[in-house]
Amino acid sequence: NAKLEALKNRFDAWVWEDADRTNELVRLYNDKFNTTVPRAFDGRHLQLPGVSASILPKLHAHVKRAAWRIIQSGNTYLAHAVGAGKTWAAVISAMEMKRLGLIKKPFVTVPNHMLQQWAREWLELYPAARLMVADEEQFTGDNRRRFVARAAMSDVDAIIITHSALKKLA
Fold it and tell me: Structure pTM?
Protein backbone atom coordinates (compact mmCIF):
# COMPACT_ATOMS: atom_id res chain seq x y z
CA ASN A 1 0.00 0.00 0.00
CA ALA A 2 2.85 2.38 0.78
CA LYS A 3 4.49 1.67 -2.60
CA LEU A 4 1.16 2.17 -4.38
CA GLU A 5 0.67 5.52 -2.61
CA ALA A 6 4.22 6.59 -3.50
CA LEU A 7 3.65 5.60 -7.14
CA LYS A 8 0.41 7.63 -7.28
CA ASN A 9 2.13 10.67 -5.75
CA ARG A 10 5.05 10.41 -8.18
CA PHE A 11 2.64 10.13 -11.14
CA ASP A 12 0.72 13.20 -9.97
CA ALA A 13 3.96 15.18 -9.86
CA TRP A 14 5.28 13.71 -13.17
CA VAL A 15 2.17 14.75 -15.11
CA TRP A 16 2.73 18.44 -14.33
CA GLU A 17 6.54 18.56 -14.68
CA ASP A 18 6.52 19.04 -18.46
CA ALA A 19 4.06 21.53 -20.00
CA ASP A 20 4.00 19.75 -23.39
CA ARG A 21 3.27 16.41 -21.73
CA THR A 22 0.55 18.01 -19.60
CA ASN A 23 -1.12 19.59 -22.65
CA GLU A 24 -0.95 16.31 -24.58
CA LEU A 25 -2.47 14.32 -21.70
CA VAL A 26 -5.21 16.93 -21.21
CA ARG A 27 -6.01 16.80 -24.95
CA LEU A 28 -6.11 12.99 -24.92
CA TYR A 29 -8.32 12.93 -21.85
CA ASN A 30 -10.72 15.51 -23.27
CA ASP A 31 -10.91 13.73 -26.64
CA LYS A 32 -11.70 10.38 -25.03
CA PHE A 33 -13.78 11.25 -21.97
CA ASN A 34 -15.09 14.83 -22.00
CA THR A 35 -17.66 14.40 -24.73
CA THR A 36 -20.62 16.12 -23.07
CA VAL A 37 -20.61 19.89 -22.85
CA PRO A 38 -23.51 21.70 -21.16
CA ARG A 39 -25.37 23.88 -23.62
CA ALA A 40 -24.84 27.60 -23.18
CA PHE A 41 -27.66 30.02 -23.95
CA ASP A 42 -26.70 33.52 -25.04
CA GLY A 43 -29.48 36.02 -25.63
CA ARG A 44 -27.31 38.98 -26.62
CA HIS A 45 -28.65 38.83 -30.17
CA LEU A 46 -32.27 39.40 -29.08
CA GLN A 47 -33.49 42.76 -30.42
CA LEU A 48 -36.83 42.70 -28.55
CA PRO A 49 -39.04 44.91 -30.73
CA GLY A 50 -41.77 46.53 -28.69
CA VAL A 51 -39.86 46.63 -25.40
CA SER A 52 -40.03 49.99 -23.68
CA ALA A 53 -37.10 52.20 -24.68
CA SER A 54 -36.62 53.17 -21.03
CA ILE A 55 -36.26 49.54 -19.93
CA LEU A 56 -34.18 48.06 -22.75
CA PRO A 57 -30.87 49.64 -21.59
CA LYS A 58 -31.51 48.43 -18.02
CA LEU A 59 -32.27 44.84 -19.07
CA HIS A 60 -29.65 42.56 -17.51
CA ALA A 61 -27.83 40.04 -19.71
CA HIS A 62 -29.03 37.11 -17.56
CA VAL A 63 -32.67 38.03 -18.30
CA LYS A 64 -32.00 37.81 -22.04
CA ARG A 65 -30.13 34.52 -21.53
CA ALA A 66 -33.06 33.10 -19.56
CA ALA A 67 -35.54 34.26 -22.20
CA TRP A 68 -33.43 32.72 -24.97
CA ARG A 69 -33.21 29.47 -23.01
CA ILE A 70 -37.01 29.35 -22.69
CA ILE A 71 -37.40 30.06 -26.42
CA GLN A 72 -34.91 27.34 -27.36
CA SER A 73 -35.95 24.71 -24.82
CA GLY A 74 -39.68 25.25 -24.66
CA ASN A 75 -39.61 24.90 -20.89
CA THR A 76 -37.22 26.17 -18.27
CA TYR A 77 -37.19 26.32 -14.50
CA LEU A 78 -36.22 29.83 -13.44
CA ALA A 79 -34.78 29.55 -9.94
CA HIS A 80 -33.50 33.11 -9.66
CA ALA A 81 -33.79 35.13 -6.48
CA VAL A 82 -36.69 37.50 -5.91
CA GLY A 83 -36.24 40.60 -8.05
CA ALA A 84 -33.78 38.99 -10.48
CA GLY A 85 -36.05 39.27 -13.51
CA LYS A 86 -37.99 35.99 -13.73
CA THR A 87 -41.19 37.74 -14.78
CA TRP A 88 -39.45 39.77 -17.47
CA ALA A 89 -37.67 36.67 -18.78
CA ALA A 90 -41.01 34.85 -19.05
CA VAL A 91 -42.73 37.85 -20.66
CA ILE A 92 -39.90 38.39 -23.16
CA SER A 93 -39.87 34.71 -24.09
CA ALA A 94 -43.66 34.69 -24.57
CA MET A 95 -43.63 37.79 -26.75
CA GLU A 96 -40.63 36.60 -28.78
CA MET A 97 -42.10 33.13 -29.30
CA LYS A 98 -45.31 34.77 -30.55
CA ARG A 99 -43.38 37.14 -32.80
CA LEU A 100 -41.34 34.25 -34.23
CA GLY A 101 -44.48 32.22 -34.89
CA LEU A 102 -43.56 29.46 -32.42
CA ILE A 103 -46.79 30.01 -30.48
CA LYS A 104 -50.04 31.77 -31.34
CA LYS A 105 -51.33 33.10 -28.04
CA PRO A 106 -49.34 32.93 -24.80
CA PHE A 107 -51.49 31.72 -21.90
CA VAL A 108 -49.82 32.45 -18.57
CA THR A 109 -51.11 31.04 -15.30
CA VAL A 110 -49.95 32.88 -12.19
CA PRO A 111 -50.57 32.60 -8.43
CA ASN A 112 -53.77 34.38 -7.41
CA HIS A 113 -52.06 37.19 -5.54
CA MET A 114 -49.74 38.01 -8.47
CA LEU A 115 -52.27 38.61 -11.27
CA GLN A 116 -52.15 42.42 -11.21
CA GLN A 117 -48.38 42.44 -10.69
CA TRP A 118 -47.89 40.28 -13.80
CA ALA A 119 -50.18 42.47 -15.88
CA ARG A 120 -48.49 45.65 -14.62
CA GLU A 121 -44.95 44.32 -15.31
CA TRP A 122 -45.98 43.00 -18.74
CA LEU A 123 -47.28 46.42 -19.74
CA GLU A 124 -44.27 48.13 -18.20
CA LEU A 125 -42.01 46.02 -20.40
CA TYR A 126 -44.24 46.02 -23.51
CA PRO A 127 -46.40 49.18 -23.27
CA ALA A 128 -48.32 48.42 -26.49
CA ALA A 129 -49.11 44.80 -25.57
CA ARG A 130 -52.72 43.70 -25.86
CA LEU A 131 -53.48 41.62 -22.77
CA MET A 132 -56.51 39.80 -21.47
CA VAL A 133 -56.35 39.59 -17.70
CA ALA A 134 -58.77 37.20 -16.00
CA ASP A 135 -59.57 38.74 -12.64
CA GLU A 136 -62.12 37.22 -10.24
CA GLU A 137 -64.99 39.34 -11.59
CA GLN A 138 -64.50 37.96 -15.08
CA PHE A 139 -64.57 34.40 -13.80
CA THR A 140 -67.98 34.24 -12.16
CA GLY A 141 -70.94 32.55 -13.86
CA ASP A 142 -71.60 33.60 -17.44
CA ASN A 143 -68.66 35.99 -17.39
CA ARG A 144 -66.36 32.96 -17.41
CA ARG A 145 -67.90 31.66 -20.66
CA ARG A 146 -67.71 35.12 -22.23
CA PHE A 147 -64.08 35.53 -21.21
CA VAL A 148 -63.11 32.13 -22.62
CA ALA A 149 -64.96 32.84 -25.88
CA ARG A 150 -63.26 36.25 -26.19
CA ALA A 151 -59.90 34.67 -25.41
CA ALA A 152 -60.42 32.06 -28.13
CA MET A 153 -61.53 34.56 -30.77
CA SER A 154 -59.39 37.61 -29.96
CA ASP A 155 -56.01 38.37 -31.43
CA VAL A 156 -54.25 39.35 -28.21
CA ASP A 157 -50.60 39.22 -27.27
CA ALA A 158 -51.24 37.20 -24.12
CA ILE A 159 -53.82 35.93 -21.67
CA ILE A 160 -53.00 36.05 -17.97
CA ILE A 161 -55.11 33.93 -15.63
CA THR A 162 -54.87 32.89 -11.98
CA HIS A 163 -54.45 29.32 -10.73
CA SER A 164 -57.91 29.32 -9.16
CA ALA A 165 -59.51 30.62 -12.38
CA LEU A 166 -57.75 27.93 -14.38
CA LYS A 167 -59.27 25.27 -12.11
CA LYS A 168 -62.73 26.57 -13.01
CA LEU A 169 -62.21 25.81 -16.69
CA ALA A 170 -63.56 22.50 -17.92
Answer: 0.76
